[in-house]
Specification:
With about 350 residues, this protein is of the alpha/beta class. It has three domains: about 60 residues, Single alpha-helices involved in coiled-coils or other helix-helix interfaces (Up-down Bundle); about 220 residues, 3-Layer(aba) Sandwich (Rossmann fold); about 55 residues, no CATH class. The protein contains 17 helices and seven strands. The chain has a seven-stranded parallel β-sheet, sandwiched between helices. Strand 6, helix 13 and strand 7 form a beta-alpha-beta unit. Helix 2 runs antiparallel to helix 9, helix 9 crosses helix 15 and helix 15 packs across helix 16. The two termini are about 40 Å apart. About 10% of the residues have low confidence. It binds guanosine-5'-diphosphate and magnesium ion (MG). Guanosine-5'-diphosphate binds next to helix 5.
Length: about 350
């Protein structure tokens, strides 16, 4: 199958082809890397070499940009449950919804992704929904460039909303916050003391704050938590001047507050578009994506390029026999920069 045929299949709504393309993004094989570069290049509408030069690039005409929403929060706060409720609501509005779940723990346990999938039972059988664990890579850079590419593929496939679930453990939410139009932070009903445990850094990323589980036994506690969050809002400052993230009570279980939270998300995006913040964010995202992809490819070349492998083993031998020192080895190994 040619790259063009593959891209067409994805665009026609074939979810298996989309899934395969996302799998390719995380592959470390040189062959796969080349193939995914070609595909991404096509999808992003870049003319590459003479191969495409003579053809008009129809890709841009049908490409559109989705609303990209990050959903973060501590494990167990209800991100997957909320995403399912929101996803079902968005389908009812006529949206096509893609969910990318970035879960670092899935690398270790292998089980949590399955857990997420079963919790999104209703969404996962909908023909206008696509759910998939996003490749995490080994590094944060890995999260960024593979997820950015996965978002672009989902847009190419015609999804109008891309929801990105990420565990808010203080490491990768910054990376995800920098990839989306709106970053939603879910909070667990809890005491004020527990709230103080929330890292200030995470709150600063939040464009919308939700307190989930506003139901049953945790209903009242959720209300207290909301009050605490609101009164603590002076402790963190949003990047957007004079903006303070709205706090909303939701129950993902009972699908309560879903519509309101979506309206707040849209309100934020609208507001940030009017102030030019949205455009600024998207531009910065592209620069960061470029840098991380360049770094990724460069590191790959560094260790995988056959010339480098040969050079490396010769330098290793010299180091072992103490013929050169570490600095000399680095100087001999790295390419000249100017
Ligand atoms: N009471 C209540 N429980 C919820 C709600 N949303 C999620 N849960 C429960 O919280 C647990 C974690 O949910 P999950 O969506 O997997 O959380 P995640 O780890 O943040 O993705 C599960 O046992 C859910 O059933 C809610 O709105 N109300
Ligand atoms: Mg989850």
């Amino acid at each position: 199958m040619t790259t063009e045929e593959w891209a067409e299949l994805i665009q026609s709504g074939d979810r298996r082809s989309l899934s395969r393309a996302i799998t390719l993004l995380e592959s470390r094989k040189e062959e796969d890397r080349k193939q995914s570069s070609l595909l991404m290049s096509h999808v992003l509408g870049v003319r590459r070499g003479s191969q495409h030069a003579s053809r008009p690039f129809g890709a841009m005409a049908t490409n559109h940009e989705a609303l990209r929403i990050g959903i973060s929060g501590a494990p167990g706060v209800g991100k997957s449950t909320y995403i399912e409720a929101l996803g079902m609501y968005l389908l009812s509005l006529g949206h096509k919804v893609a969910v990318l779940a970035i879960d670092p723990s899935s690398n270790i346990s292998g089980g949590s992704i399955l857990g997420d999938k079963t919790r999104m039972e209703r969404l996962s059988v909908e023909k206008n929904a696509f759910i998939r664990p996003s490749p995490t890579g080994k590094t944060l850079g890995g999260v960024t460039h593979t997820t950015q590419s996965a978002i672009a593929l989902c847009e190419w496939a015609g999804y109008s909303v891309v929801l990105i679930e990420t565990v808010g453990v203080g490491q990768n939410e910054g990376a995800v916050a920098n990839m989306v139009d709106c970053f939603v932070l879910l909070n667990q009903p809890g005491s004020g003391d527990e709230l103080q445990g929330i890292k200030k850094g995470i709150l600063e990323y939040a464009d919308i704050l939700l307190v989930n589980k506003h139901d049953g036994k945790t209903k009242e506690l959720a209300e207290h938590t909301l009050a605490h969050l609101q009164s603590a809002s002076h402790l963190y400052r949003h990047e957007l001047k004079d903006y303070s993230a709205p706090c909303i009570l939701v129950s993902a279980f009972e699908s309560k507050g879903i519509e309101e939270s979506w309206n707040q998300i849209l309100g934020f995006i609208d507001h940030s578009k009017k102030l030019g913040f949205w455009k600024k964010r998207r531009n910065e995202q592209i620069i960061r994506w470029f840098k991380q992809l360049a770094e990724h490819y460069w590191v790959h070349q560094l260790w995988q390029n056959p010339n480098n492998i040969a050079k490396l083993s010769s330098l290793e031998n010299k180091l072992r026999s103490e013929k050169i020192n570490v600095i000399e080895a680095v100087d001999a190994f790295l390419p000249p920069w100017s």
